Amino acid sequence: MGTGRSADSLDPGAPPGQLKSMKTALHVIIALTAICCGCGGRAPEGAREGLVVVTSLAPHADLVKRLAGELADVSYLVPPGADPHTYEPLPSDMQRISSCDLYLTAGLPFEDAWLPRITGSSPGLRTVSLLDGIQLLQEEDGDGHADPHTWLSPGLMAIQAGNAARALQALDPADSIAISMRLDTVLAGIADLQEELHSELDSLRGSSILVVHPSYGYFAREFGLIQIAMEEGGSEATPSELADLVRQAGASGARFVVASPQFGTRTAEAVSSELGIPLVFHDPLAEDWMQGLRQLGAELAGGAVR
Fold first, then answer.
1. Long-range contacts of residues 77-80, Cβ cutoff 8 Å, at least 24 apart
2. Which of 28, 72, 82, 158 could be 68's S-S partner, Cβ–Cβ 3.0 to 4.6 Å?
């Protein structure tokens, strides 16, 4: 098996046409061999093939990519613009989870509903919660569920980075040092983001922000803001409820209205116009969550001086 030659080592004295044909044949053999070797499912224990990691959300996929580098193929389930609260995995999503090496959970409602079915059919699936060590808030919609929007707090993402790194190291001990080095880089980036956001938002501590959906509880807690949701019990406020909300927001000195693509912007635009306060757009599920939060901080700081 070790006596074959590469295409570049073929007899240079052969006629050009023959040499080209020999190279082409060899490339075909190599390609077929690679395909056949890759058809056996998951790599055997200790093999150095790339890991397959699935997360529920794009921000967590970005976090894992920063930690894993080229060691893992990372994907996420909830597509852009979808609402994670009402999302239901497709059959293809369930297949993707059941065949991956690691599924990192984030405390979302659909995980609680669907994960037992997936793990029941795939007992070897390794699942790890990113929320280990995090004190969760209760959602403001009154349904008794914990608030899952932890990825909007840089400080909590630092904890989740550590959880994700340990999960990757458990799967790939040989690359533990490389993962630790990437973790240091990620944590340094998060620390820089926190410093930048504090410099922009500390002067706004105690200010209220109006949001359509209560996604910003952890963000507000970290930076001393007050979140006021325009939803009532998980449903869009009625006209009378909205009128009451506008009065309360005006009395509380609300400074901003934050709108996101997962929910309609009509109510946010109406409230912004009624109160005469800036309307800020932010996608809480943007894959590049660090840049998204950086832009949100800049928008809030810029709106405060207008």
1. 78/285, 80/261, 80/283, 80/285
2. 72
Same domain, 91 and 144: yes
The CATH number assigned to the domain holding 207 equals 3.40.50.1980
Is residue 76 in a domain?
yes
pLDDT by residue (tens digit) across 225-252?
A: 999 888 765 566 777 877 887 888 888 7
Residue 184 pLDDT greater than 90, yes or no: yes
Burial class (CB in 10 A: 0-12, 13-18, 19+), 233: exposed
Whether 20 is in a domain gets the answer: no
Same-domain check for residues 180 and 295: no
User: How large is the average pLDDT for residues 51-58?
Assistant: 96
pTM of the prediction? 0.80
Give the number of domains in the chain: 2
Report the relative pairing of strands 235-236 and 256-259 from DSSP bridges.
unpaired
